[in-house]
Amino acid sequence: MKSLKNHISLIVALFTVLFSVQIYVGVDRTIAAYETRLKNDYSIIVVASKTLTPVEFKAMDSLIERSESISVDQVLERLEGEMSKKNLDLLRLTLPKFYRVYLTRFPTPDEIGKLQKRLQRNSAIQRIEGYSQTHDTVYKLMLLFKDVVQLFSIAIAAVTSLLILKEMRLWQFQHAERMSIMALFGAPVWLRSAVLFRLAIVDALIATVLLCLTFFAIDQYGWMNLLLNTVGIEIKLFDFLNDSLRSLLIALGVAIVLTLTIVIGHEEEE
Fold first, then answer.
1. Partner of 57 for a Cys bridge, out of 67, 85, 90, 203, CB 3.0 to 4.6 A?
2. How many CB atoms lie under 10 A from the CB of residue 99?
3. Is 244 found in the same domain as 146?
4. How does 152-170 read in b/e, with b if 16+ C-beta sit within 10 Å?
């Protein structure tokens, strides 16, 4: 019963590490998807004194993906009843050209500032509106959320690693007599510690399976996808091929490295 309790403790600890890593991966994917959505919606308004082609805009900065002209016909139509056709035609000729410029990706605040400076080098460009204040707020909030999740994941991983070390130390005490007998017969260190590695690997496999089942249940229930869809984001929180393989490698790596730490520490004490 005591051995089973130790197994459960290690499985829970490994599962916690894997779950925290997967949550960070999910948050990173969510932010990346949100950045793509913002990139598609975000644009810079440019006012120019003459007509500028999309090729000219792209030549100004590699961050520019495309540009499109903003028609002023709707504004002029509202003035048709208040101005003569001659004056409207004259106004149409004297009005500056308005453009909406789209970018290849969601930029950082520094990149927006540099982009505006490069655009202003063109003598035909009179004004640039990048909505930097709103952009800075959204971008900084996203980075803050990502950093908080990252720190939270690191803290959980550190605490659970200490718990795993403690559980493995208990395993070592439970098998100390067997390991001592094998040492008397000249068994090498790896053979004496094989039982510890075997238990660690089995628990790592179980923790990985539990993680996959947990996210399978979350995916089937669908409440997370529904929540993400409300803000226009569609992502895979858990890729059952790549994420399960990565989780297995992490679980095996943590279990084996910490087991090695226990074994090497025991050898040095001897």
1. 67
2. 21
3. yes
4. ebeebbeebbebbeebbee
Amino acid at 50: K
Q: How far is CA 37 from CA 11, 30, 103, 112, 188, in A?
A: 38, 10, 12, 17, 58
Q: Determine the Cα–Cα distance for residues 163 and 127; give it in Å rounded to an integer.
A: 60
Over range 229-250, report the average pLDDT: 83
Q: What is the structure's pLDDT at 1?
A: 45
* Element (DSSP H or E) covering residue 129: strand 125-129
> What amino acid occupies position 248?
L
Half-sphere exposure for 45 (CA within 13 Å, toward CB): 8
Give the count of alpha carbons within 13 A of 144, CB side only: 6
Pair 168, 229 in one domain: yes
Please give the order of strands across the beta sheet that includes 125-129. 64-70, 97-103, 43-48, 125-129
**Residue found under tokens 């949100």:** 34
- Cβ–Cβ under 8 Å, residues 176 and 168: no
pTM equals: 0.69
Per-residue pLDDT, 269: 47
- My answer on whether 30 and 106 are in the same domain is no
Tokens 């913002």 belong to 38
| pLDDT 10s digits, 245-258 | 999 999 998 888 87
- The domain total for the chain is 2
In terms of domains, do 261 and 157 share one?
A: yes
Report d(CA 144, CA 133) in Å as an integer: 17
Q: Domain of 244? A: 2-37+137-269
Residue 47, beta-bridge partner list: 98, 127
